[in-house]
Amino acid sequence: MKSKRAFTLIELLVVIAIIAILAAILFPVFAQAKMAAKKAAVLSNAKQVGLAGLMYSVDNDDTFPVAGSWSPSWGWNTAFGFVDTPADWYDYTSWGVPNSEIHQAMATSWANSMQPYLKSSEVMAAPGENLQDWPGTDYTGTHPTWSNFGMNGLLTSYSASAISSPSQVPAFWQRAAGLSIRGEAWIGPSLVCADPEQPCKYQPSQPGCSDQKNGEFSVFYLDPSFVPLTRWSYNHTITYCYTDGSAKAHPYGMNLHGKTDYRFDPFSEYNEDSSSSTAWFDGNLCHGYQFRPDYVSTDKAVEG
C-alpha cells in the first residue's frame, strides 16, 4: 500500500508565492475595470441629464431652464450656487422668510424644473461620489436627494440655438472630483445679479464688467465649509455634457506644479489635497472661460 505524499514546506512557499504574484497582477486590473464601469455610468447619466435639458428647451421656446431662482425676499440670490432638491425639503422658517415663498422659487430652478424630463432623480448621481451633509443641517424627517451634476449658470434662460460653439460649451457637468451635498444640486459658474427688479441673463464679456449690473459677472461658488473642496476621483476625470447633447470625459488637475488646460479644466491650479481657489476666466475677467455661450476656442483665457 502506497503512502500519501504531503507537500514540502518549500513547495507550499512556492505555491503561496505564485498566488501572491497573480494577486498583485490581477487586483489592479480589477480596480481598473471597476473604475471604468463607474466612468461609463457617469457618462451615461451625464448624457441623460443633457438630453433632458434639450427636451426642456424644445418645450420652452428654445431656452435653457433658469439655473437659480428669484423670490421677493431674496431676489436672484434665492438659489445662488446651490438648489434645494426637492424644492420643499428644507425648512426656512428660522431664516425669517415664508417657506412657501422659497419653496416655490426653488421649484423653478433647473434641477427641479427639469425633473419631468428625467427618468428618476438617481440620474443626477455619480457612482463613487463624495457624499456629504451640509454642515449643521438637521435632516430628520426630510427626504432630500443627491445630485453630483451642476448646470452652467451662464445659460440661464439662454436660447439653445444661439450658442456659438454647441459642442464646446458645457451645459451640465459633474462637480469637480465628485463632491455631492445631500439635498442640493448646484450651479457653476453662477451669474451675479444684484438687482432683483431686472432680469438675470448673461451679458457678453466687456472691459469694466461689474458685479452690480445683472449678468455682467459670474463666479464659481466655493463654500469654505467644504475643505478640501474637491478630491481626486475617476482617475482625474471630469464629465461634461455639452449644449449639443454630447457627453465627454476629460482629464482635470493633471498638473500640480503649473497651470491646467483651460479648454477642459475650469480651475487653473490645484493644491496637493486637490483643493483649488483659482479658475480660468475670459480676457476681461468677467465669466468662466469655456462656460460662456458665445465662447470660441480662439478667445484669450486668464487666471482669476
Write a brief caption for the model.
The protein has 304 residues and is an alpha+beta fold. The protein has one domain.
Fold and architecture overview:
A hairpin with a 4-residue loop joins strand 9 and strand 10 (247-251). With 304 residues, this protein is an alpha+beta fold. It is built from 3 helices and 12 strands; from the N terminus they run H-E-H-H-E-E-E-E-E-E-E-E-E-E-E. The strands form 4 sheets. A 6-stranded mixed sheet has the order 1-6-3-4-9-10. A two-stranded parallel ribbon has the order 2-5. The protein has one domain (9-303). It starts with 8 loop residues before the first helix and ends with a strand. The model has no long low-confidence stretch (mean pLDDT 83).
Helix and strand topology:
Layout: H1 9-59, E1 82-84, H2 99-107, H3 110-113, E2 130-132, E3 149-151, E4 170-174, E5 179-181, E6 184-187, E7 190-191, E8 218-219, E9 237-242, E10 247-251, E11 280-282, E12 301-303
Parallel strand pairs: 2-5, 3-6
Antiparallel strand pairs: 1-6, 3-4, 4-9, 7-8, 9-10, 11-12
Tell me the structural class.
Answer: alpha+beta
Distinct helical segment count: 3
β-strand number: 12
Helix content: 10-25%
Judging from the principal axes of the Cα atoms, what is the shape? globular
Distance between the termini: 86 Å
The main sheet comes to: 6 strands, mixed
SSE string:
HEHHEEEEEEEEEEE
| Overall radius of gyration | 23 Å
Q: Could you tell me the mean pLDDT? A: 83
Unreliable spans are: none
Count of structural domains: 1
Side-by-side strand order of the widest sheet: 1-6-3-4-9-10
Strand content: 5-15%
